[in-house]
Amino acid sequence: MSAKIYLVLFLAVVVVVQYTEAASKHCTWHGTAPACFPDCPSDKFAIKENNCGKAKIACCVTGKKKLCCPKTLKGQITAAQAEAMAD
């Protein structure tokens, strides 16, 4: 393979790793309507649960959506703050 191909592959890997790390540093809603029985990823904890999450249109008929935040924020963030910053 040429050096250009290796460079492109390397840059693609860097972008994916940075995106994954950035995504894991934020609070995110988990659960897909209408049946919501999500677990938080292993590096996050559930700070809040409700039927609709951020999307007030796609609400759960059974179960609840979970707002999951990085474990590094545990004890340092309120549910209201987490909801305000959630994706």
Mean pLDDT: 80
What percent of residues are in strands? 15-25%
Helix content: 25-40%
Spatial extent as radius of gyration:
17 Å
Compressed to H and E, one letter per element, the order equals: HEEEEEH
Can you count the helices?
A: 2
Signal peptide: 1-22
Protein name: WAP domain-containing protein
Keywords: Signal
Write structural notes for this entry:
The protein is α+β, with helices and mostly antiparallel strands and 87 residues long. The chain has a domain at 27-85. It has helices at residues 3-24, 79-85, and strands spanning 28-30, 35-36, 44-50, 62-63, 65-70. The longest helix is centred in the first third of the chain and has 22 residues, at 3-24. The N and C termini lie far apart (39 Å). Mean pLDDT is 80; it is low at 6-23.
Blueprint (SSEs and pairs):
Elements: H1 3-24, E1 28-30, E2 35-36, E3 44-50, E4 62-63, E5 65-70, H2 79-85
Parallel strand pairs: 2-4
Antiparallel strand pairs: 1-5, 3-5
